[in-house]
Amino acid sequence: MNRILEQEVMDTAETAEAYDAMEHSEVDNAFVERVLALGAKTGHFLDVGTGPAQIPILLAQQCPDIRITAIELSKEMLKIAKRHVVTAGLAERITLEHVDAKALPHPDNTFDGLISNSIVHHIHDSLRALKEMSRVVKPGGLVLIRDLIRPETPEAAQAFVDKYAAEDTPYQQKLFYDSFLAAFTIAEVNEMLGQMELAGAVVVQSTDRHWSVERAV
Prior knowledge:
The chain is α/β, with parallel strands linked by helices. It has eight helices and seven strands.
């Protein structure tokens, strides 16, 4: 099955709120647990495609010596992220920025850690964004980029939706289904990694439906 692009930006309040209302806690907690396992303790981290900012909130709660710049292209999603960050009392340690991942404004080798969850499939020129991510993280810095794996058939994609989003609304289920169709295979991610400057990073299948690019510190 070829990749079918979806809308790059969740630019309506309806879409952003629908995404925020979906059950992400298990995936988000597993992501942060992996960040900790890769050696996260201190420093300045960049979260690319932060969405509602639940992952930087969880990471900041676990690691009081980490501060996070969290970027997002959707202004509607940033409104939700700001709400969550303020409610969590973490506005001094989590900075939210309206930034396109394909053109990061940060200098080379800025960040001690780079994290990104479920954003790569949204980006039409994903390789460009991935190269930007590799540019701004310090050599040897922690890296965890995770996203969905594109199934071989539409039917397989629907099976994942049925398994993991059965309680969601039809609209939320469609968002999830479309994300699978826009995602990459592990082979494609390995090919892109070969064009990035991330020495020591590897691609792994982290769950039945996720790949990860990882580098420990």
